[in-house]
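Exercise 7b. C-alpha cells:
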C-alpha cells in the first residue's frame, strides 16, 4: 500500500471538533478491521507477532476508512507454542499497557487484547483513555465504562454524536471492550474470539469483572513508572539495539486487516 494513501490517524478523529465525522458505521468498520488485523498478526501471519504498542495513534485510516496497524518498533516475534515472554525493560504507552506487562514485564497475545479493548472504549466514547468526563464523573475511561455498564447505564459513555447507530451493536462493543480490559489476562478473550463476537450476535458474551486499575487502586504504582509513553526515538532505539534481528520487526511496517 502506498503510504501517501493514508488519510489520518484515529486520534485526529477523537478530537472534539472532528468526532461527528465518524458515524457508527465507520467506527464499527475501524473496530472490526483492527480486530482482524491483530488476529492476522497473532494467528494467520507467517510470523507470529505481538505488537506491544497498539493504540489509537498507531492505527492509520485510508481514504475509505479502512484501518491499518502501524509502527512495529516494539513488536516481538513468538514461536508457535510460546505463550508469553518476560522483559526487564517495560516500554509502551500509558493507559494501553496491560497490568501484567506494566508491573511485571510479562507480555503475550493477551497484552495486545487489553490494548485493543482500550481502543474499543475510546472509539465508542469518542474520548481518550487518559481523561474522560461524563456529567459529574471524571477519571479513567475504563473505570467509568465499568461503573456505567455494571449500573445498567452504559449508554452514558457513548459519544453523544452517535445518534443513528445500532444501539445493540454499540452496547455489544462496550461489553466486548470490557472483556478485553479485564485484570486477569487468562480471562480476556483471544482475538479469534473477539472477531467472532464482533461478527455474530449469536456468539455469547461472558460477564466481565472489574477492569485493571478499577477504582484507581494501583494509581500510585503507575505514577512512579517513568516509561509510559515513548516520545523520542532515543528510548525506542535503545531497546531496538538490544534485540536480535530474529525478534525485531521493521517499525515502518503497516498491517492490512485484509492481507492479500
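Sequence design result:
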Amino acid at each position: 500500500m502506498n503510504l501517501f494513501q493514508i488519510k489520518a490517524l484515529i486520534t485526529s478523529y477523537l478530537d472534539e471538533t472532528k468526532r461527528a465525522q465518524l458515524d457508527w458505521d465507520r467506527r464499527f468498520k475501524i473496530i472490526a478491521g483492527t480486530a482482524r488485523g491483530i488476529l492476522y498478526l497473532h494467528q494467520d501471519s507467517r510470523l507470529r507477532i505481538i505488537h506491544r504498542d497498539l493504540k489509537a495513534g498507531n492505527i492509520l485510516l485510508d481514504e475509505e476508512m479502512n484501518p491499518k496497524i502501524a509502527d512495529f518498533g516494539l513488536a516481538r516475534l513468538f514461536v508457535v507454542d510460546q505463550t508469553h515472554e518476560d522483559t526487564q525493560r517495560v516500554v509502551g504507552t500509558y493507559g494501553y499497557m496491560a497490568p501484567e506487562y506494566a508491573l511485571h514485564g510479562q507480555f503475550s497475545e493477551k497484552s495486545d487484547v487489553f490494548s485493543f479493548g482500550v481502543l474499543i472504549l475510546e472509539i465508542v466514547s469518542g474520548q481518550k483513555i487518559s481523561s474522560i468526563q461524563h456529567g459529574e464523573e471524571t477519571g479513567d475511561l475504563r473505570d467509568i465504562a465499568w461503573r456505567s455498564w455494571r449500573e445498567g447505564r452504559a449508554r452514558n459513555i457513548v459519544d453523544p454524536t452517535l445518534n443513528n447507530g445500532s444501539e445493540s451493536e454499540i452496547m455489544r462493543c462496550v461489553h466486548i471492550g470490557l472483556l478485553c480490559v479485564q485484570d486477569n489476562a487468562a480471562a480476556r478473550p483471544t482475538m479469534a474470539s473477539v472477531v467472532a463476537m464482533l461478527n455474530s450476535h449469536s456468539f455469547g458474551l461472558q460477564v466481565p469483572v472489574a477492569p485493571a486499575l478499577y477504582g484507581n487502586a494501583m494509581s500510585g504504582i503507575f505514577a512512579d513508572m517513568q516509561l509510559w509513553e515513548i516520545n523520542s526515538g532515543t528510548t525506542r532505539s535503545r531497546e531496538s539495539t538490544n534485540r536480535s534481528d530474529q525478534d525485531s520487526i521493521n517499525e515502518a511496517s503497516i498491517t492490512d486487516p485484509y492481507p492479500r
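Instructor comment: Residues 1-5, 217-255 have pLDDT under 50 and may be disordered. The chain has one domain: 7-76+84-255.
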